[in-house]
Amino acid sequence: MSDWRVAVVGATGAVGRNMIRTLEERSFPLADLRLLASARTAGSKVSTRWGDVLVEDLADADPAGIDIALFSAGGDRSRAYAPVYVTAGAVVIDNSSAFRQMPDVPLVVAGVNDHAIAGHRGIVANPNCTTMALMMGVAPLHRAAGLVKLVATSYQSVSGAGQRGMDELVRQNESLAKDLEALAAGGWTDPGGDLFPRPIGWNVIPHAGNLDDSGYTDEEWKLVNETRKILEAAAILVEPTCVRVPVMVGHAVAASMHFERPLAVEEALQLLERTAGVEVWTERAPTPLDCAGRDEVLVGRVRPTLGETGGINLWAVGDNLRKGAALNAVQIAELLS
Ligand SMILES: NC(=O)c1ccc[n+]([C@@H]2O[C@H](COP(=O)([O-])OP(=O)(O)OC[C@H]3O[C@@H](n4cnc5c(N)ncnc54)[C@H](OP(=O)(O)O)[C@@H]3O)[C@@H](O)[C@H]2O)c1
Is 251 an active-site residue? Predict the structure, then answer.
């Protein structure tokens, strides 16, 4: 593997910071590291194992000489700048949803559908963080038995909405905790907030993402469409519900699956235990606190379906900033190199 000139776009954000950490931890063969963000943080320096790196303003940075650009600065920035970086010679690995459904853009969960990268034309998309964790647990079973129907309910942490999501949870938790009696008996004071549609402190919001006329959110549509694209199975029936929970890091999904042929729990466990990047927990159920800061997706509560037999119910939880975003992006970069 030769050394690569890498840029992290959105380097000061929740995902970007994890990208830098992941490049460091995996000793990615770097010839040069460039960090880009908005005018707000341009001019600051980030300490890395390759030295202190100046943060450049994406708006006027020169993309020449970059081999791989890891984008995580929001969809608008990806739409505006990713094509410019590709024209300048970079391969863009994009964390936003801007290109995920484009036919000539591979949507890759490293370890699940690596082969799809071969068809890229300059941009490779990183899947949505909830779909990513779910696919790690679903894909091995799908390959063995042919997934027909997936009912998935997500429990998504606030860091899925970036640094501002984490800040809002902390602030609302503190504000609402000033009157614990009101949390139990009613009469709480709205803590205010501009990110989530309802208070997330001490609460659960039954629709993560933006609702559309269908009654589903964009996060739910991502679960449907990205599952089908990654598994290359457009006919899979997906019933999604995406819920926002007052957790800092870690997206969990409760999944109920039916297949072309009945799948026994013993076989499902064997398949999952053989899957790199998955850790099966049988003694106790994994929680978001267990997965925070970890690369593996933790799978537990693997059990047979009750109503319609032959299916599998399971619980998967993964760090949305690592496998759900930064780690997978770096793994894609490793596959390219
Ligand atoms: N959080 C997750 O779990 C997750 C998972 C998968 C994918 N993603 C995607 O990754 C992207 C970033 O998410 P995040 O959670 O890291 O958000 P974040 O914490 O809010 O960070 C946003 C980053 O984008 C930069 N940025 C914002 N506006 C910019 C502009 N006009 N020009 C250049 N840079 C700009 C910010 O720079 P400043 O610091 O200078 O403002 C910051 O570095 C989003 O597309 C998100 O959908 C997030």
Answer: yes
